[in-house]
Amino acid sequence: MMTHDTGQVACTATLRGIDSLIAHVRDKAPIRMAVVHPCDALSLGGAVDAHAAGVITPVLVAPAARLRQAAADADLDISGFDIVDVPHSHAAAAIAAQLAGKGEVQALMKGSLHSDEYLGAILAPEVGLRTERRLSHCYVMQIASYPRPFIITDAAINIAPTLEDKADIVRNAISLAHVIGVAEPRVAILAAVETVNPRMQATLDAAALCKMVDRRQIMGGLLDGPLAFDNAVSPQAARVKNIHSPVAGRADVLVVPDLQSGNMLAKQLEILGGAESAGIVMGARVPIVLTSRSDSRMTRLASCAIALMLAERYLLVPP
Questions:
Q1: Which helix (H) or strand (E) holds 226?
Q2: Average pLDDT, stretch 180-209?
Q3: Which of 23, 87, 206, 311 has its CA 20 to 30 A from that of 179?
């Protein structure tokens, strides 16, 4: 699957689990990360874990009294961390975004606040974190039944993406795939069927995205679609349906038609399939860790490791 030695190392690290992912970034300098309103055990514990692993230097932005109570309740030591005391979660999001915009932190991580509140502050024009691309969320997932890590996008931000939105979603996913070591990611544009049906907008969008690759409007990956989920990830299903494609059966990226389908797919793989995952937002000037409030500390740790890899890339190639 890999064509570059550096890609082989990074992807192998992800493939073998979160421990190997952390081992891959262990020799890298930690990034300064603003953790936004981590006022519960899971989000605060994730920051503590990432610090202990040498991945981040946390800056905790939250009401200080509530933060210290959460740490005491969870028996977490935050005595050595920088704390920015704010009155409430809305202020935490706004001030953390400002810190990132001014370059005082290199990444952001969501704590125990709503995603809309968190992202709304990041998208504020005066903060300066937006780029020409639309923000999109990527789940980096690994499951025992699939031979490689893969990305699901977008399952958290864009509710009903247009074709233009999907083009940026694909570009963002390709950029992330490059960072985690996939030199030429295979991108499957998912729909319920693998044929173009004028009554199914997802199939029309898939066909248009593939043509955008031909016209070099999207670069850096191999695209195919529409593909149903089974023939995107199962070589046998692709053979049965007589689909001849470099993507079918071995996708590195799964682009879903809308947020609802993507969110259900990702949560099913996590809860029923035992998938390990990390969550990151692409398209901004800094890496943005966006996890569910119920996500485990290990998921948060893995997300921070990917944020570190992204931040290192952004120093060389600003988004």
A1: strand 222-227
A2: 96
A3: 206
The pLDDT assigned to 239 comes to: 95
Do residues 155 and 259 lie in contact, with contact meaning Cβ atoms separated by under 8 Å? yes
Structure tokens at 148: 């490689």
- Would you tell me how many other CB atoms lie within 10 Å of the CB of residue 279? 25
Q: Domain map of the chain by residue range?
A: 1-130, 132-283
CB proximity list for 79: less than 8 A, separation 6 or greater: none
pLDDT at 18: 66
DSSP assigned state of 125: G
C-alpha radius of gyration, the chain, whole number: 19
Check: CB of residue 169 under 8 Å from CB of residue 124.
no
| pLDDT above 70: percentage of residues in the chain | 94
Mean pLDDT of 145-154: 94
Element (H, E) at 152: strand 150-153
State the architecture of 132-283 in CATH terms: 3-Layer(aba) Sandwich (3.40)
User: What are the φ/ψ torsions at residue 212 (nearest 5 degrees)?
Assistant: -65, -30
pTM of the predicted model over 0.85: yes
Q: Which CATH architecture has domain 1-130?
A: 3-Layer(aba) Sandwich (3.40)
pLDDT digits (tens, 9 = 90+) for 5-34: 333 333 434 335 667 777 888 889 999 999
| Digit-coded pLDDT (tens) for 237-281 | 999 999 999 999 999 999 999 999 999 999 999 999 999 899 999
Helix axes 115-123, 89-101, angle to 10 degrees: 40
